[in-house]
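LAB NOTEBOOK - FOLDING QUEUE
OPERATOR: T.R.
BATCH SIZE: 2
PURPOSE: Compare the predicted structure-token outputs for two unrelated chains run back to back under identical settings.
PRIORITY: normal
REVIEWER: second-year student, initials M.K.

ITEM 1
FIELD SEQUENCE / FIELD STRUCTURE:
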Amino acid sequence: MIKEYKEKKDNQYLNFRLIIPNKYFISRLVNDKELHLSYTDLNTYYLLKYNYISNITFDYFKKEILSEHDVVSILFIDIIYLKNNFDITKITNYINNNYFYKTIFGVIGINVDGIEYIINNISNRHYDSYCYNYRINPCFPRDLLIKYSSKLYKPNILYFKYSDKYIEDIFNNLCSDNLLKELHYSKSFKYGSNFNLNLCLKKYNISQNIQNFEILNFEKYILNKPSIKTEQFNMNEEDLWFGNKTLFNFNFTLNNYENLSDNMYDYSYDEINMFSDIFIKEYLNDEELSKILKNPEYILYKYENDYSIEKNFFYFSVVKCCFVGSLIYNNYSKFIIYSLVNLIDCINLKYLPQDNRIYFDCKYYCEENYDWPCDYEVIISYTITTTSNDDFNYIFFP
């Protein structure tokens, strides 16, 4: 299953979203010795949750801004599948009710447990919400579509009338009024006219072109349309981060590093080179490098408590690169390394698990600041490969 997940999880219609990131699944990924992923979508939250990374590592590499999907996904997987307690009403202080209800379907409405939870705990407060897309995720058989569709939303005004009762039931329980309206105007359904609907209907073995159907109650729909609540997408994005104690009650303090990338080009090229010289002298001398290679987190604590240098994008980025370099040097999990490298923002680098090395995409020009003869990747790669340890230097290459 792990191998199949890694090879095919880019295809959302194979339902690998049904995999729950429990302790067993994460341990299999972390301990995988033959990592050949082209990317990973695992949130570092689960690496922290199961003690594969420490608090300080999580703080340095966490996503600084979370999407509404991230928040809903983490909290509801914890509630439903990992059996943690949480007051779900707190979420709507930060995410608009309508958008929250829309998002939760894509996160947990993909199996019976998730649907039952929505019906028993959420739908009663959102039953008047207007359905704009699919009434239910297209991963359930016909009988469950019929069973759950009417419990999640009010019945459609429009009705898809067709000679084949099986197809009629699928359309009426899967499609919202909005989708049925599109079918009304098109007069026929042919594959290619609606890509997403094509894929959904293939799951129900509806492969032929569908014609001679009728959309009933269209005049009633037009008359009632003005009374349909407008969907709102506003949310408090600045509050959607792991440091929000209402949403994520960690027992340690998190720092917000989002503003560091905002000033990355406020410095001159000469100033950044000066920072590089300081870092080489204070952090990568033989004595300090030895400490970093014995304990990768040493450099994180050193930088956090070092008040002799300013907290800026260059130092923050080069510290994280040295940290993952030490992980590689000490043969840590390739999956953890891959996950962390993907979260080093604004620097073009990637981890190659087959080679167990980090590649910098160096450019000898700077699109953001034409006064610079090269970009950050050149300066950072130079900085961390000037040590006296050839094995450490070899980990990084331009």
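ITEM 2
FIELD SEQUENCE / FIELD STRUCTURE:
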Amino acid sequence: MAQAIDRRAWLRQALPRAAHALRSGLSQAPAPRLVFEHEHCMPYRGPECGACAGLCPPGLDGLWLVAGKPRIDADACTGCGACVEACPVSPPALRLSRREAAR
């Protein structure tokens, strides 16, 4: 079962990013991109996990499990970071990276 998101921690990360985007203009803010490091992911090493599954905002399926292993749709991912926060391994199997926003 997926762990609950720490809303305060999420807001501490999301609000400064939102404020920056508003100050600099949304078209200029780089979009976060989810990077998956499968060598750190527990299901790729044997044990089951699934902590990252089902955490995407309602109506979006940026990450789902296939045979117990995460799959990512970069076009559907909003970069909210919920799955990154839920990853129990260190270093995390998921991380956010910045890229140039689509023009």
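REVIEWER COMMENT (ITEM 2): Residues 7-24 form the longest helix (18 residues).
FOLLOW-UP: none requested
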